[in-house]
Amino acid sequence: MSKFTFVAAERAHHAVSTLCRVVGVSVSGFYAWLHAIPVRQSRAEAEAELRGHISRIFAAKRRVYGAPRVHAELRREGHRHARRRIEQLMRDMGLQASRGRRRKPETTNSRHDLPIASNRLGRSFVAERPDTVWLADISYIAKDDGFLYLAAIKDLATREIVGWSMADHLKSGLCTDALVMALQRYRPPRGLIHHSDRGVQGGFKRSSQHLAGGGCDEHSKAAFGLVRAKRVAVARPAHGGTA
Predict the structure, then answer these.
(1) What is the pLDDT of residue 112?
(2) What is the rounded CA–CA span in Å between residue 210 and residue 208?
(3) Is 228 found in the same domain as 137?
(4) Percent of the chain at pLDDT above 90?
(5) Average pLDDT over residues 3-11
(6) Given this model, what pLDDT does residue 135 score?
(7) Which residue has the higher pLDDT, 212 or 133?
(8) Which residue among 29, 61, 93 closes a domain?
(9) Which residues of 205-230 are buried (b: 16+ CB within 10 A; e: fewer)?
(10) What is the reported pLDDT for 242?
(11) Do 183 and 242 form a contact (C-beta atoms < 8 A)?
(12) Which of 15, 71, 113, 197 is the most exposed place for a label (fewest CB within 10 A)?
């Protein structure tokens, strides 16, 4: 029990000045301590609430968030606190982010029985003119809450990115959107080869497509699915349908 606590407990039976003189504290110091009790209680309640928010976020993020990301999440929720305070509280609470390696997403998968267009390019990665061979691929960018996926199409002759698309998923629409952008921007002539690996997208597992005429043929339907093949055909109606 502190001296001030003793004085507060006994002041109903004795004069405050006498108690303070006996325990060796000043009367003004005792009253300053007494008036600060509500402030200390309020601070304790606020800290308990903040600890609860930290525990909730840490658990919701599967124990992989350290103090910087917990602090950022708190700010997004409208709680304004110094990052050093969050770091100190997490140390006091024994919360430490797990350092396990994040599993990389799989963007290529040849283990499937879906239709695959024939490989018309082979190993001949040379093009003398633009808009004769387009190469397509998918990459990903790591974020705090997952991955952002990027589908890009590059002209083999110019090495220019002619179409791209970004999404938070690996569905076939990611690749179709990139191809439609390229077709609408460059309107390539008939005979274009579109080549990529065998991706993990359902309805978009393909190798190379090369169409000589307009519309949708069985190659594009096998590669993209009927609905997406029609989107590709509509993107370049004046030229031969090329996918």
Answers:
(1) 59
(2) 7
(3) yes
(4) 25
(5) 88
(6) 87
(7) 133
(8) 93
(9) bbbbbbbeeeebbebbbbbbbeebbb
(10) 37
(11) yes
(12) 113
Looking at the structure, tell me whether residues 70 and 140 fall in a common domain.
no
Q: Which of these three, 63, 93, 123, is where a domain ends?
A: 93
Within this chain, do residues 140 and 83 fall inside the same structural domain, yes or no? Answer: no
Q: What is the mean pLDDT of the chain?
A: 77
Q: Is residue 198 part of a domain?
A: yes
* Same structural domain, 150 and 222: yes
Is 100 within a domain?
Answer: no
Run of H or E residues at 2: none
Residues 141-180: b if buried by 16+ CB within 10 A, e if exposed: eeeeeebebbbbbbbbeeeeebbebeeeebebbbbbbbbb
Q: How many domains does the chain have?
A: 2
Long-range CB contacts (within 8 A, 24+) of 99-106: 100/64, 102/142, 104/140, 105/140, 105/147, 105/149, 105/170, 106/200
Q: What's the predicted TM-score (pTM) here?
A: 0.47
In-domain check, residue 220: yes
Residue 173 Cα distances to 73, 121, 170, 228, angstroms: 31, 24, 8, 8
Helices (H), 169-225: 172-186, 218-224
Residue 160, classed as helix, strand or coil, is coil
Is residue 87, in this structure, part of any structural domain at all?
yes
Contacts of 177 (CB under 8 A, 6+ apart): 151, 165, 167
Query: What phi and psi, each to the nearest 5 degrees, are found at residue 218?
Result: -65, -30
| Domain, as residue range, for 38 | 3-93
- 142 and 221 in a single domain? The answer is yes
pLDDT tens for each residue of 59-87: 988 888 899 999 999 999 988 899 999 99
